[in-house]
Amino acid sequence: MMHDRVGTQFGPYRLDGLIGRGGMGEVYRAYDTVRDRNVALKLLGGSGVDDGTFAERFRRECQLVARLGEPHIIPIHDFGEIDGTLYLDMRLVEGENLRQVLVREGTLAPEQAVDIVEQVGAALDAAHEAGVVHRDVKPENVLVTPTGFAYLVDFGIAHDGTDSGLTKTGTAIGSTAYLAPEQLDGAPVSSASDVYSLSAVLFELLTGRPPFQGETVSAVIKATVLNQVPDVTALNPALPPTLNPVLARGLAKDPAHRFATARELGVVARQALSAEAPTSFTAVPPAAPGPTQAFADQTMIAPSGPQYYSGPQQYSGPQQYSGPQYYTGPQQYTAPQYAPEKSGSALTVLLAGLIGLLVAALIGLGVYYLAFNNSDGDGAAAPSTTTMTSVVPRSPAEQPQAAGPPAGAAVCADGVAVGTSVTTCPFAIEVRRVYLNSGAMGEARGIVARSPVTGGSYAMSCSPSGSGVVTCRGGDNAVVHIY
Q: Which InterPro entries match (predicted)?
């Protein structure tokens, strides 16, 4: 049973003040008499702690978190057991948690909210790469210093693995509001579960309330599992509507349809604030691989509705499509096309040619007469000079060169090539599509393209690189040449 130990001694620690209390333990402001420093000391107690497996899992996760070294994760100084009580010695951070901030402010400015999510996302991705899933991302577990630096705390080490968090008095509804649907069903958790919870935190920072609400735990669960994500602009009209597809994807019911990483959530949310979020970032699952078009020039057909990339395929002529069609008719672009001359224009050209031949014939007769018949009738031929002209073809260096991939690039399809071995052709074709759909060819601009291979979305910086070629760089060392 937990109790207030302020003013008492716990091993080498003097407990000076209570910072917080939860279902599984208490956190104290303590003084380490051995190392002469103030620390945050977490003492674990309550149901589940006596389980023989809990102490072992506690030590294992402490060791993993202590090795992370990510700036947005509070460093762990020490951990262990004293007199039968498990403890965790951490750096003492002066600040307040996001719940306290929300109680005082109501909502945060969008830029501030996204900045905090980006920082927490960095901590989560570092943990996920080490095989640690937090399992309890919520405003209470995010500390913010007076300078705006955010820390993610309590990496699941204070939670019984068999405890759903739904029965603790006073915390049930608050915890449930940030749990992913698979957590509510008792399914195994993954990094996607943390991405969902971080998206729920972002939703609340922007609107002042969690995405799904209810008066009881069961009402919150039903809303989480069954309801669509609310429109954030209806709750806060000052927000840009481009945030809606971002949050819809982050809060997708199916873990496979969420952002691949917490960092990706932050990147796309940042773009949404400047109205640059691509329409492909929605909760709609990606289409199955299917036919698409690789154009030989840079003409793109304007879509009549939402477009979803379905995989690369070379186009060599009109094709039959077995799925939804987004084109206005069969298109064949094997070279720049020119409209045929109208019949009236063809007649004009024909007449002009005939007249030209007649004039040339008359001039020829005149020259013949002057050359062989002088005005004195002496029979002497007048001197004449024949001038021969010819067109000398340009050398290859002088011929105008069509835009093409730079030396060393691997051509994927007409108009697109890759510059590094880690860049896939399906991703390169999608980069070209997004770039050409977002503005004129040859302009420098940033885009975000989704990889059909990895399922992730990557920010790319595109700029002209000479000879009519635009080079896009970004992602994981991806280089795409568009021409």
A: Kinase-like_dom_sf (IPR011009), Prot_kinase_dom (IPR000719), Protein_kinase_ATP_BS (IPR017441), Ser/Thr_kinase_AS (IPR008271)
